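Help! Submission page says 'invalid entity' but I think these are all valid:
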Amino acid sequence: GQSLEQPSEVTAVEGAIVQINCTYQTSGFYGLSWYQQHDGGAPTFLSYNGLDGLEETGRFSSFLSRSDSYGYLLLQELQMKDSASYFCAVFPGRDSNYQLIWGAGTKLIIKP
Amino acid sequence: DGGITQSPKYLFRKEGQNVTLSCEQNLNHDAMYWYRQDPGQGLRLIYYSQIVNDFQKGDIAEGYSVSREKKESFPLTVTSAQKNPTAFYLCASKTGGDSVTEAFFGQGTRLTVV
């Protein structure tokens, strides 16, 4: 089967740094993406990793290790507006009939 | 501006009634998806389509139906056979095939059975 695992909830303090992990088990792999979803809203794309290493976009960074089937999203200088759910997603390609495979999401709670 | 539009934003359904959720995109994307999201949960795939006039069942297709007569449109019908349809429904699109690109989501339709 195809599966992704991520923590259900993470709590952090405003201004701090938080890391959200994602491990995956899929038959094919083209890349790992991260999406943010605020309560009542639609998911929006944050980042994509197709190769090993770190991708940085402002306060957000995403890391991938293909040999470990593992990635993480790093959020720095946390702001209250970062309170949301974060989903990792894998695109296995033809092996999944071109479906995106989604993690269950991590709810990020930020305390002042 | 290009994007993906879902309508209506809120929908109320009576018991035993079929309802249709609209999803339109002008991004020229081949692939379109329907997801269901229950409170505090992740995305569950209902149906997806890689090309016009073709679609595939996802993990929870029972009680739902779709059509893909035009590239731009992928409506979802929630039938009376769906016993617990109250949920947040999200439509998404992306370029098709092996290309790895971001998925774009509509703003969702919140369906409530009354």
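Support: the input was valid. A stray whitespace character was the problem, and the output above is from the cleaned input. Chain B touches chain A through 25 residues (CB under 8 Å).
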